[in-house]
Amino acid sequence: MYKPLELFIGLRYTRAKRRNHFISFISLTSMLGITLGVMALITVLSVMNGFEKEVRDRILDMVSHMTISGFDGRLTGWSDVVEIAKSQSHVQGAAPYVEAQGMLINRGHVNGSMIRGILPELESGVSSVADKMVEGELKDLVAGQFGIILGRDLARIIDARMGDKVTMVTPSAQVTPAGVVPRLKRFTVIGIFNVGMYEYDSSMALLHIDDARRVFRMDDEVTGVRLKLDNLFRAPQMKYDLQETELGKYWIRDWSSYHANWFRAVKIEKRMIFLLLLLIIAVAAFNIVSTLVMLVTDKESDIAILRTLGASPTSIMKIFMVQGTIIGVVGTVLGVVLGVTLALNLETVVPFIENLFGVRFLDPGVYYISELPSDLHWDDVWMIGVVSLLFGVLATIYPAWRASRTQPAEALRYE
């Protein structure tokens, strides 16, 4: 009795058993539609976030958070650059690198590769390739011994095994009495890594930085310096901060620029999937419209009596908006609870479904990521919940307005 009149009557209509069971069925369908739509949106976006995080982490196993290099591909005085970079806040590690292209030949197999020279003692500070070694260790790279570490798929392509001698052909040539011939150098395979990204596992080879400089004739120069930050999402802002220092004369890039098209495609896909799944909630909202329209028709005499007792058109409108809003709120809350629960327990639910039906959603023989990852973002949950509630409220406006236009004399004429 302490509730506002509109809320009291709206809740009473909602709790009451209606004479028309078809209206109750459509109301339940509308509520379930909103619940399923919200649950599907939260789960699918969490899975897409999970895939993006997995791929991003695997990319960052080989690509550092930031790189500082010369515009001509050569950088001198790399130790000073490392010292200046590490003095900046949020920079956790820095390491020089040499990067160039070459061809690897072994047992008649030839494959173009990206050759990267590294300092093993500093590399662990900017990448996690040391933790991805399948055979051998990163510290086995010793200057002057011309050892090489291959990606797992690259080793398979050229049929290379531990201890094999592989030949590297560099782009530069040398002049001999026999004419101009390509420069060749033999390396011993001392390790194999697997980061889980075919792009790197099939084309990347690691050398000691001194061996790489000797092969590519870089003297004391390097290609650049790689940085690791305490938070990878600081990289875009950190790039602008570094450009304000002495390092501004160099080419500074962050990790997102290396695969800009891929990250842009993921954002577009997330946006499109969000809009497509939002149609489920929109359909459920249309059901709320049809439910309330039929309810208004069914309650015309009640509306007329309320109007004769002094209820204003605005009060009548509020009564029916309460009913539609309750359907939207209950459906949204249930959808959020179920969606969050499913997203947080996806790693348990998916294997259970796979074992129950004897299927495998991601075959490990085909996909590098064989489990459905999930990364729940609470800002996505809030956005989905707010949009769903907004749909529910908007769906009540027309039926409630139609109820407020009911004329008591016309409605009670045949009663």
Structure commentary:
It is a single chain. With 415 residues, the protein is an alpha+beta fold. The protein folds into two domains: 204 residues, no CATH class; 191 residues, no CATH class. 51% of the residues lie in helices and 19% in strands. α2 runs antiparallel to α9 and α2 packs across α11. The longest helix is centred in the N-terminal third of the chain and has 39 residues. 37% of the residues are buried.
Can you lay out the helices and strands and say which pair or pack?
Elements: H1 5-15, H2 21-59, E1 66-69, H3 78-86, E2 91-106, E3 109-118, H4 120-123, E4 133-135, E5 147-151, H5 152-157, E6 165-176, E7 179-193, H6 198-201, E8 204-208, H7 209-215, E9 224-229, H8 235-243, E10 251-254, H9 260-298, H10 300-308, H11 313-344, H12 346-357, H13 378-404, H14 408-412
Parallel strand pairs: 3-8, 5-7
Antiparallel strand pairs: 1-9, 1-10, 2-3, 2-6, 2-9, 4-7, 5-8, 6-7
Helix pairs in contact: 1-11, 2-9, 2-11, 2-13, 9-11, 9-13, 11-13
Give a quick set of tags describing it.
single chain; 415 residues; alpha+beta; 2 domains; six-stranded mixed β-barrel; 10 strands; elongated
Number of strands: 10
Strand and helix order:
HHEHEEHEEHEEHEHEHEHHHHHH
| Major β-sheet strand ordering | 2-3-8-5-7-6
Mean pLDDT across every amino acid position: 82
Described by the principal axes of the CA atoms, the overall outline is: elongated
Radius of gyration, in angstroms, nearest whole number: 33 Å
- Tell me the number of structural domains: 2
Helical percentage:
40-55%
Beta-strand share of residues: 15-25%
Taking the alpha carbons of the first and last residues, their distance comes to 29 Å
Describe the largest sheet: 6 strands, mixed, barrel
Which stretches are low in confidence, meaning pLDDT under 50 for 5 or more residues running?
A: none
Query: Structural class, judged by helices and strands?
Result: alpha+beta
Number of distinct helices: 14
